[in-house]
Amino acid sequence: MDKNTIIGFILIAGILVGFSLLTRPSQEEMAERQRINDSIALAHQLEQEAQQLSLQLASAQATAEATATDSAALREQIRATYGALAISAEGEAKEVVLENSRLRLTFTTKGGYMQRAELKEYKAYGDSVNNLSLFRGDESNMAFTLVTANNRILSTSELYFEPLQPNPQNLIMRLHTDMEGSWLDFVYTLHEDDYMLHFSIQAHNMQHVLAQNINSLEMQWHQLIPQQERGRKFEERYSVLQYMLAGGEQERMSESKHDSQRESARVKWIGYKDQFFSTVLIADESFASSEFESTPQDKLSRYIKEYRTRTTVDFDITGKKETGFRFFMGPNNYNLLKAYDHDAIDGQELHLQELVLQGWRIIIWINQIFSFPVFDWLMRTGWHIGIVILLMTLIIKLIILPFVFASYRSSAKMRVLKPQIDAINAKFPAEKMAERQQAMMQLYSRAGVSPMSGCVPMLFQMPILMAMFWFFPTAIELRGQSLWWAEDLSAYDAILTWGYNIPFLGDHISLFCLIMTIANIAYTTITMQQQTMDPSMKMMRWMMYLMPVMFLFIFNDYAAGLSYYYTLSLAITILQTMIFRWSIDDKKLLAQMEANAKKKANSPHKPTFMERLQKMQQEQQRMARENAKAQQKRMR
What is the pTM of this model? Predict the structure, then answer.
């Protein structure tokens, strides 16, 4: 690039810069231009807002016109669907409360049913503030099916009731209709100091509102059973849907799996039972054509079971006769439940005490005659629950003391005969078992001893032990009662827990159960020292020690009160055994047995059982020898 070209570019640049400086607007001109631009932008914004407002007004006007049209159509649809009950198709769900010293019941105006039931005297496990709730909110629902005069099928759960409370003990949930003088009442009456709620359905001139051919109502009752106790395993085991037929026979659904049942016979009451509490619906007359369903809930759920019932009840559409029920909502206390039959006419007893599991037939008899009355009598003394169980254990031990002493005395007789038994075993080897048994029978007969005499007294004790096995896990009196380290004697008393499940043991160790196992091993050791067991039967000896260890796995999840009772029982039994050992001298006992044998040999007497058994055995051996000889002759 030459010199002239460079000069030319510089001149052009200078001209452009100078021109831009000369034509740049002043500050006033720039401010005016900015104002004009802002005014234009504002005008555009106002125009857009006006357009948007206009659209909104048009939309609102169209919506209002459509709403008016839809509202009229909706009213016509409601009228067509609900008939004379259309007035009760809309409303607001409100809560109304009835309560006495034991119950606090909450009702909802939508459906007119009981939405929550609280027991004032009890708390759920882990909650020391709030009352125990049998159900609340959506956990329970009860509805009746209504067929209208225009053949529409409605549920009372969809309708709104008006609450009327003439006094603190009564509540009327009224279902209004469009017809004057026609309504349906749900009447609830709760008396003071009672777990029973009276419930009736009363119609007032409903023959023009409902279908003329109605003579019954279908009822649907649903309830979820929440976990209330520490030990879920036993709460699941004792939670069951149970009902009683009008004839008195009781039926139970499965406790462990899903179960459904159709009952064609009339049913008197239906019980939704937990381990310690129940909600029972009792018909004044009876239920008919019932269907029941019980469903266990997931282990991680806060619920134990889900119960459902579909049934029918008699209903008078004219209102001349009410449909009556009673609700029992309370503890599974045997004496409390039995008291509801004190004034009952023969054949009309409710037998609600059957909600408390009592075991098998002979076990039931023992618990009804002994366990429940004695335990209730001791509880009324006001003593601590630990002392009450101790006293009950002592009473039981005094009752079975004669049997225990007879069993120990029989074992002592077998023990002093051990040298003679060993001599017989040495004289007759195993190949000559028949001769050995015959010699044993002769020895037992002379000594006046029966090997079974020690077992028979123990058989008399077993029903009592089994009765206690059934009694303590169902005794609500133990619930929430503490003893030493155990916070609740109705549940297990874990002293050590871990975060995983060990098969047959669980995720914890219960201290009372551990102490019971140790006491059982100690008692087994003492018992083994008193017995004359064949040294060759080592496996049997190991089995005797294995059983107490198995009890640790069996009872680890059981109520601490049961393990405490068994521990006390074993401790007293060990003490009795020590006293018996001190009071019975083996030498004197042997001398007495020999003297009795000589006296019996020198005097005529009726054959004893052992002598008859020995004679029968000798006769069998004689016949066997004769048969063998006859067989040999035929072979020749």
Answer: 0.73
